[in-house]
């Protein structure tokens, strides 16, 4: 079966991405206008910022999957949460639909932990600590009754400031071409991975948010912009920006011996996940690294020799002119 690519956008997705900026201070610096979104949430008053933070960034990101099965408006998001049973909503928020979590623990362990079984809760925490994909679950989501979680979720989504305008989308390209435009450097290797949902959001740049579900991957990416400069000088500026940073050079050096997964790179650089993701996104956008995405294993980063050849050609073209 061939790869299926669909395109989505909507104010509901924008609310979720912006809620990440409110929930996680480390992501405010890598999301577009993240600090402004946080300040606006604080200006709304009440418990909005505190409630949003309790869910953690993954809590809000985990709602992207079920929302993608609707048109994606803010009202769709509110309806989705309102109609879900509290236990079903809590299960989604802690990552019950994520392929990573399903690989870590059996469904019975996750359900038992959410129902208060101490043995299952210990097993879940142990599995999360051992997770090499750095999947996270906010402790508040695990220890709070499902009805309270649902009430807090609805409070946040109802009070959250209106998101800005949506970026343009383009579903007319062939799947491979569209994927290359919105997420250059991503390769899809899983035989069971047949469904990719692309969600354009002006709130993300240059980081691309990837949500892996069994058989499906959601990619939240910067909006497609037509008419960007493609001459040799513009290309050289992009490549020089990507390579002109000490941390990014260290990442390239770490990848020289062979492919690495994100936790290994974070440990080698002694840097937090969010910081490393930001640098990886710039290197990937410049074509200097690729990412192999599988529905069964962590994403794998490796050098892209073609990107370095392109860098050399861009330098040569600039000097000859």
Terminus-to-terminus distance:
47 Å
State the low-pLDDT regions, or none: none
Q: Compute the average pLDDT.
A: 83
Helix proportion: 40-55%
Order of helices and strands: EHHHHHHHHHHHHHHEEEEHHEHHEEH
The proportion of strand residues reads 5-15%
Count of the separate structural domains: 2
Principal-axes geometry comes out as globular
Number of helical runs? 19
Structural class: alpha/beta
Number of strands: 8
For the largest beta-sheet, the strand count, sense and barrel status come to:
4 strands, mixed
The value of Rg in angstroms is 20 Å
How are the strands ordered across the major sheet?
1-3-5-4
Structure description:
The chain is an alpha/beta fold. It has two domains: 10-159, no CATH class; 232-320, Winged helix-like DNA-binding domain superfamily/Winged helix DNA-binding domain (Arc Repressor Mutant, subunit A), CATH 1.10.10.10. The chain has helices at 11-23, 25-28, 34-44, 48-54, 56-61, 64-67, 74-83, 86-93, 99-104, 107-114, 118-130, 139-143, 146-159, 175-182, 232-243, 246-255, 262-269, 273-285, 305-320, and strands at 4-8, 186-188, 195-200, 209-213, 216-221, 260-261, 289-293, 300-303. Helix 1 (11-23) packs across helix 3 (34-44), helix 7 (74-83) runs antiparallel to helix 13 and helix 15 packs across helix 19 (305-320). The longest helix is centred in the C-terminal third of the chain and has 16 residues, at 305-320. The protein is globular, with a radius of gyration of 20 Å. 39% of the residues are buried.
